[in-house]
UniProtKB/TrEMBL annotation:
<dbReference type="InterPro" id="IPR006553">
    <property type="entry name" value="Leu-rich_rpt_Cys-con_subtyp"/>
</dbReference>
<protein>
    <recommendedName>
        <fullName>ATP synthase subunit s-like protein</fullName>
    </recommendedName>
</protein>
<comment type="similarity">
    <text>Belongs to the ATP synthase subunit s family.</text>
</comment>
<dbReference type="InterPro" id="IPR032675">
    <property type="entry name" value="LRR_dom_sf"/>
</dbReference>
Length: 271
C-alpha cells in the first residue's frame, strides 16, 4: 500500500514537472475563484429554498416528495445523555453558517479587502503588498481598513491565527492572485479536502504552515504538487506515519527550492 501511494504521487509530480509553460499550469490549477464560489453559493441557496418555510405554506403539505427522513439518526440528536455532542454539533453548525461565502461582500469590497475583513474580524491577521505591518482588529473591535473597494490594497500574507476555520470559510479566500504567505497553524477543522482546495486556488504560494492541523494526512499533501513556487512547508506528523514523511521527501525531491519542516504531535515550536 505504501509503495502504491508513493508511486501515484511520483506519477503526478512527474507529469507536472513535464509542463514547461508555468503560466499554462497556473491557469489549469486555478480551479476556484469568485465566479466559482458565487455558483456554489447560489446552488446551496437553491437547495435550502426547498426546505425553507414561507408565508402561506400548508404545514400538512411536505416540502419535498419524500414523506419520511432518508438519513439515519446521528450522534448529535438531542436527548438527555447526549447534551455535549448536541451542543458541539450546534456550535459547529453556527460557525459554518457564519463563515459562508457572501457574494455581496466581494462585490462591494473586492476579493482582497473582503478577505481582509473576513479574517481580521475572526481574530486573524493580514499583511498587504509593500507593507511590513500586520493588520488586525484593534482592542476596541474596530478595523483600520476601507469599507469600499480600493485597488491599492493587495493581500500578500494571511495568518489565520488558529481560529476555528472550516472548509466553508476557505471560500472567502478566493481570487487572491498575489498571495504568497499563508499560515493555517492549529486550524483543527482543515482536512485533506481543504488542503486540496488551497493548492488549487493558490498555486503560486511560497510559504505554507499547516502544523497542528490534525486532520491533514499524506493524501492531502499529495495535492501540493501544484504549488511550483512553494519554498517552505511546515507540517505536523500527528500519526507518526512513515508515508507522511516519505510524501514530504518526494515533494522536496520534485519541487526545487522546497524545504519541509516536520514536527511531531504536541511538539510544535513556541511562538
Amino acid at each position: 500500500m505504501l509503495v502504491r501511494r508513493i508511486s501515484v504521487l511520483a506519477q503526478k509530480l512527474n507529469k507536472f514537472m513535464c509542463i514547461q509553460d508555468k503560466s499554462f499550469s497556473f491557469v489549469q490549477a486555478r480551479m476556484y475563484g469568485v465566479d466559482h464560489e458565487i455558483k456554489q453559493y447560489l446552488q446551496r441557496e437553491k437547495e435550502a429554498d426547498v426546505n425553507r418555510s414561507t408565508l402561506g405554506d400548508d404545514p400538512k403539505k411536505p416540502k419535498t416528495f419524500i414523506w419520511f427522513p432518508t438519513e439515519a439518526p446521528t450522534g448529535e440528536e438531542f436527548f438527555l445523555g447526549n447534551l455535549r455532542n448536541w451542543f458541539n454539533y450546534k456550535k459547529r453548525k453556527i460557525d459554518k453558517e457564519s463563515q459562508k461565502f457572501i457574494p455581496e461582500r466581494h462585490e462591494v469590497l473586492g476579493a482582497n479587502l473582503a478577505t481582509a475583513h473576513f479574517i481580521a474580524h475572526r481574530g486573524g491577521k493580514i499583511r498587504f503588498k509593500n507593507s511590513d505591518f500586520w493588520v488586525e482588529l484593534n482592542k476596541d473591535g474596530t478595523l483600520n481598513l476601507p469599507n469600499v473597494y480600493d485597488p491599492h490594497y493587495i493581500v500578500e500574507a494571511v495568518d489565520v491565527n488558529g481560529f476555528d476555520l472550516h472548509y466553508e470559510g476557505l471560500s472567502n479566500l478566493c481570487d487572491l492572485t498575489k498571495l504568497k504567505w499563508l499560515s493555517l497553524k492549529n486550524c483543527k477543522n482543515i482536512d485533506d479536502w481543504g488542503l486540496d482546495k488551497i493548492s488549487a486556488e493558490f498555486p503560486e504560494l511560497e510559504y505554507l504552515d499547516i502544523s497542528g492541523c490534525e486532520k491533514i494526512t499524506e493524501r492531502g499533501l499529495e495535492s501540493l504538487y501544484r504549488m511550483f513556487n512553494l519554498n517552505k512547508l511546515i507540517v505536523t506528523n500527528h500519526n507518526k506515519s512513515a508515508t507522511f514523511e516519505l510524501t514530504c521527501m518526494m515533494l522536496e525531491d520534485c519541487m526545487p527550492g522546497l524545504t519541509c519542516e516536520i514536527y511531531e504531535s504536541l511538539k510544535l515550536p513556541k511562538e
